[in-house]
Amino acid sequence: DGGITQSPKYLFRKEGQNVTLSCEQNLNHDAMYWYRQDPGQGLRLIYYSQIVNDFQKGDIAEGYSVSREKKESFPLTVTSAQKNPTAFYLCASSIRGRAGGVGRNTEAFFGQGTRLTVV
Amino acid sequence: QKEVEQNSGPLSVPEGAIASLNCTYSDRGSQSFFWYRQYSGKSPELIMSIYSNGDKEDGRFTAQLNKASQYVSLLIRDSQPSDSATYLCAVNIGTGGGADGLTFGKGTHLIIQP
């Protein structure tokens, strides 16, 4: 079955520690995204990538880093510089990014999420 | 700054009635519009997309778009208790400047009363 897989489902981070969230897709989608969701809030864009070896900052990129070495994978690292990392992290992908047109190419599909808690 | 506004609710609707969810957006360059359903503790699920003015129907769901008024809505007919969830409106501004990705509203919490 094609889909987007995030791991782990739950993650606990100690103060000052970097952690990496995994996101893998087998949909052959070009574009991938990372969003953060806080309780009672909408999703906010952290980073996005429209193509392999390229990625751009979203609205709340400070304290986060990403890489896109393979089309299928877009890992997110939450660094110690992120002062309030406790949140629900969601990875998504679409056939194309905005540069590839509009319509169905930009429909985004989500993984099951990773819930990160600082302990 | 792109903005997508939704009434947070909760919106309470009797079972079998029509649930009407509304969304406004600020960027006139927006070209693609989506409705996601999110159950508590789960990730969003795409349920409707609409790209041109008018209505689009899919089963019990109808999406309505009015670009002149910068307004998009979702109607759920014959509401079922399983429709109880948070509904997120999302907008993509299409080609042009600014970040890629969807801009989301904060969601409307819908409760279907048996």
Descriptive report:
- The complex is a heterodimer of chains A (119) and B (114).
- Chain A is mostly beta strands.
- Chain A has no helices and eleven strands.
- In chain A, the strands form two sheets. In chain A, strands 2, 4, 5, 6, 9, 10 and 11 form a seven-stranded mixed sheet that branches. Chain A has a four-stranded antiparallel sheet with strand order 1-3-8-7, with no helix packed on it.
- Chain A is globular and about 40 Å long.
- In chain B, the strands form two sheets. In chain B, strands 2, 4, 5, 9, 10 and 11 form a six-stranded mixed sheet that branches. Chain B has a five-stranded antiparallel sheet with strand order 1-3-8-7-6, with no helix packed on it.
- The relative contact order of chain B is 0.35.
- Chains A and B meet through strand 4, strand 5 and strand 10 of A and strand 5, strand 9 and strand 10 of B.
Supply the key terms.
heterodimer, A: 119 residues, mainly beta, seven-stranded mixed beta sheet, four-stranded antiparallel beta sheet, globular, B: 114 residues, six-stranded mixed beta sheet, five-stranded antiparallel beta sheet, 52% strand
Morphology of chain B:
globular
- Annotation, overall tally of beta strands of chain A: 11
The best one-word shape of chain A is globular
* Beta-strand content estimate of chain A: over 45%
The biggest sheet of chain B amounts to: 6 strands, mixed
Task: Determine the fraction of residues in helical runs of chain A and give it as a percent range.
Answer: under 10%
State the oligomer.
heterodimer
Helix vs. strand class of chain B: mainly beta
- Compute the separation of the termini of chain B in Å: 40 Å
Biggest β-sheet description of chain A: 7 strands, mixed
Low-confidence stretches of chain A: none
Annotation field: number of helices of chain A: 0
What is the residue-averaged pLDDT of chain B? Answer: 92
Instruction: Provide the helix percentage of chain B.
Output: under 10%
Number of helices of chain B: 0
Number of strands of chain B: 11
State the end-to-end CA separation of chain A: 35 Å
Q: From the alpha-carbon coordinates, what is the Rg of chain A to the nearest angstrom?
A: 14 Å
